[in-house]
Amino acid sequence: MATSGRADDTRPAARAGEAEGGAGDTAPGPLDSVLRPVRAGNGFEEALEQVLQLLRLGLVPPGERLPSERELSQHLRISRVTLREVLKVLQDQNMVESRRGRYGGTFVLPRTAAPDGDGELRRRIAAVDVEDTLRFREVLEAGAAGLCAEGLTAEGEGRLRGALDATRGARLEDYRRQDTLLHLTLAELSGSRTLAAQYAAVRATLNELLDGIPLLVRNLEHSQQQHAAVVEAVLDRDPDAAREMMREHCGGTAALLRGFLA
Amino acid sequence: MATSGRADDTRPAARAGEAEGGAGDTAPGPLDSVLRPVRAGNGFEEALEQVLQLLRLGLVPPGERLPSERELSQHLRISRVTLREVLKVLQDQNMVESRRGRYGGTFVLPRTAAPDGDGELRRRIAAVDVEDTLRFREVLEAGAAGLCAEGLTAEGEGRLRGALDATRGARLEDYRRQDTLLHLTLAELSGSRTLAAQYAAVRATLNELLDGIPLLVRNLEHSQQQHAAVVEAVLDRDPDAAREMMREHCGGTAALLRGFLA
DNA sequence: AAGCAATGGTTCTCTGTCATACCTTATGCC
DNA sequence: GGCATAAGGTATGACAGAGAACCATTGCTT
User: pLDDT digits over B191-236, tens only?
Assistant: First the structure.
């Protein structure tokens, strides 16, 4: 029994992209904003994505140790077994290395110079909605800069200055990391945890895109001037200026990326 | 065996909130932006949250039918069994009603006048970081308005006008819904799917908060003027004005909420 | 040298979820 | 009236993942 009788359920349902036709009452568009998959992958994939974020953002620089498996799995709310599968993948990719014993742990390895045979990179980029990323990024950055300028504490002031200084002293191969850290600091000082978290996600995507294009010293210097201007505006408690400068700064990166990926 | 011997794993780890102490090298803050739970709940809870969004946003108004169980489960990427558990909860809460047979389905019931014994409401609000919500909302709204003003298509123009008109004709009990729809339209026209999705989420939270305070006609009229001003700025392709007006508009709601929830 | 503590490595069981198939009910159309 | 259809309702087998307990390795402390 249970042969090819009436396969009742689980039909393709024409196309799974659009919920309603044009029924005239319930709008077809808005539903898609909410009715998106509850989970982006098998849970293991999602954890992998987050640990990758950690590396792409440079929050744990090469040579440093990740939090222990027990800590990480608790933070990510996945079992240690699943987390270890994630780490296994990263080990196979030569991105991290695990050492046992006390004071052991999982350590970040320096980036091996892009072994991807060109095809892999383009495939990753194709999977990203570049326009979405750039626009969303600009919105978050400008908003964060504005919020910072409105309610910056003395402690925040210190952190911001520190982050800016760090970008100045950074060597070329460390610049992207310090740049990321500066922007991440701004996002955190915005006073919205959600904003910070979302920025972290979009920035990880952005860094992945940026890895595909050359880092020009000229752009870097320009970028650095803009950083200074943004921070200055924030320290002056001038939200409008901060937002405006940040938008300009983001526009630069966006133009660069659009140019290279066109 | 397996008694109270050495309970090796699964220790409380002092406190699960902060990853690193003040180790001096790896910053303690930024890690938290990324190391957040992979899944907010047991997957069933997350689905429940999304269906609740659907209702709170008024995307499916009272009396209307939700997408069929098969469709919904496919969109949310959960099994029909799990989805039915979600719907079961909503049925028990008298929020939806299921009817069998062809042209049956799950229908949204009109809101039963807040049966919560006051305690429930406060508990829900306490679970929300109000400041986070308000700030993040303002950032997204202002950003969306700006992006809209920059690249509005003819079709978008029509949708925007339509949404604004709908708010004008709305009766008092339907106003919140039309208001939400207008803002959601703006978010979608921003050209960033991520922005739209995030706005939907934050707006659902906001609506939940707004349900706790009275709807004053005076505020409503003021709100309506601001809506018109924002839309006008967008139609004039004036991003700065659009952003500025939207920020003002959001500021009004924020002040109202802060006042009532103080 | 011995012991302790923190880490990665392994194995087990049990629950939640998925996929699939099938049943039941109501409606419109012929 | 009968049938096709679309919806909700139900049952079951397989599997991924969580949780807990354990083992193995290392380096610091005594």
Answer: 999 999 999 999 999 999 998 888 888 889 999 999 999 999 999 9
Give the C-alpha separation, A61 to B2, whole Å: 41
Domain boundary among A74, A108, A142: A108
Average pLDDT, chain B: 85
CATH code for the domain of B220: 1.20.120.530
Q: Which helix (H) or strand (E) holds A105?
A: strand A105-108
B147 and B55 within one domain? no
Helix (H) or strand (E) holding A106: strand A105-108
Q: How far apart are CA B59 and CA B113, in angstroms?
A: 20
Per the structure, how many domains does chain A have?
2
Cross-chain residue pair B199–A33, CB shorter than 8 Å:
yes
pLDDT range class, residue B8, cuts 50, 70, 90: low
Whole-number Å distance between alpha carbons of B5 and B1: 8
Same domain, B231 and B131: yes
User: Last residue of a domain, which of B46, B80, B108?
Assistant: B108
Smallest Cα–Cα separation from A56: which of A104, A14, A93?
A93
Q: Please, how many CA atoms are within 13 Å of residue B225, restricted to the half-sphere of its CB?
A: 7
Residue B8 within any structural domain of the chain:
no
> Least CA distance to B198: which residue of chain A?
A33
Domain region containing B229: 116-261
- Nearest of A201, A115, A40, A51 to residue B39 by alpha carbon: A40
Within 139-168 of B, beta carbons closer than 8 Å to A belong to 139-140, 142-144, 146-147
The chain A residue lying nearest B26, using CA atoms, is: A60
Report the alpha-carbon distance of residue B95 to residue B203 in Å, rounded: 19
- A31 and A55, same structural domain? yes
Tens of pLDDT, residue by residue over B109-136, are 998 765 555 566 666 777 789 999 999 9
- B residues 46-75 lying closer than 8 A (beta carbon) to A: 46-47, 50, 53-54, 57, 59-60, 64, 67, 70-72, 74-75
Closest residue to D10 (CA to C1') is B81
Question: Quick check: B214 and A150 in contact, CB under 8 A?
Answer: no
Task: Give the type of residue at B54.
Answer: L
The answer on A98 and A149 residing in a single domain is no
C-alpha span between B179 and B156 (Å, rounded): 17
Are A130 and A257 a contacting pair, CB within 8 Å? yes
